[in-house]
What does this fold into?
Amino acid sequence: MEQENDATLPQTKRTVFLALIGIVMVALNLRVAAVAASPIYGIIAKTFPISNTWHGIMGMLPLLCFGVFGLFSPWINRKIGLEKGLILSMLMITVGEAARGGLSHSIYFFAASSILSMGGMGIGNVLILPAIKHYFPKRIGLITGVYLVLIAVSAAIPSAIAVPVTHSMGWRFSLGIWSVLALLAALPWFWLIHAPVQADQKNKSTDYKVWKWPVSWAIAMVFSVGALVMYALIAWLPSILITSAGKSAVTAGIMLSVYNLSGLPHSLIIPIVLTRMKKPYLIVLLGSICIITGVLGLAYLPSSSWIWIFPAGLGAMLVPVGLTFVSMRSRTEEGTTALSGFVQSVGYLIASIGPLLVGTLHSSSAGWILPCYFMAITAVIAAIAGIIAVRPVFIEDMNKK
It folds into this structure.
């Protein structure tokens, strides 16, 4: 009888502290494999050939892996639980990073180990949101904001230090060392497997028909537009600035950094504000307007490009908006997992075509106006989808199998 009571005890301070450390550590690993190699491909190519085609394939792998592996995350949560799922995620990153740094002697092995690592990131992307809801049900906005800021940090630091670390210790060390960070991130979750949880937070074997719920698709569209435009601009903004605005390569690189950094404040603020607003649609509308203003400004007034990169960067707020909606439109850990898996899988798969399609439109039109119109049109789609996404309904109330 006492054991049953123990199983329903509120979470202890130690449990909450370990969960916070676990979420922070997981977040710091969720972009490393996607960015750590790209600055040093030229150096890696001295060990084994990397063609332009493979370079392009490696550029698309992160988003594809996020989408594909994210589809399996709800099933993983149902079969082994949230904590074990996050351990699996971190161990996949650990093995993948260690293998591609220590054992790669061909682009094929390098790509395979990258898929393993990025697949772990895809699982972690999905399971981190229900983890936040599970352990911090009253602080969802704040912890989600912290998580999103740390995601940006996990993308910025590895890419910034990759070249100097490679020059000092070699490219294998530069890539393989990140496996240690992923291994450390798994440790808090080993203890949390046996931590006491509240009875209403236990996993149940329920399979939600997420793809049949219009709100799921609406949230996925908001999220995917934010990710599509963001990754398209990360890929092509320097080229736009050099060819249309006459900027030097150095200046274009600095402006790309400014574009990326302009998204940090809203990554923290938006989830907090969104969970407290009576009219959250205003945030969706603001993000859409920012994208339209930024990309059309770059198309028609490139000489003022320093002005337009700021609204363009703020438009990336649709990514945290979409992720926050996942928690707002679900009540339980399981519902959050199902919705997170669907939204991120669909979103990242759609976003993966963004850089390719923008490049194709540029090549076919010999200019940037058509690609910028394409990105502006996607923002209009997000604004329309947002009308449905903000409906105060919950996935648990939909029909289940």
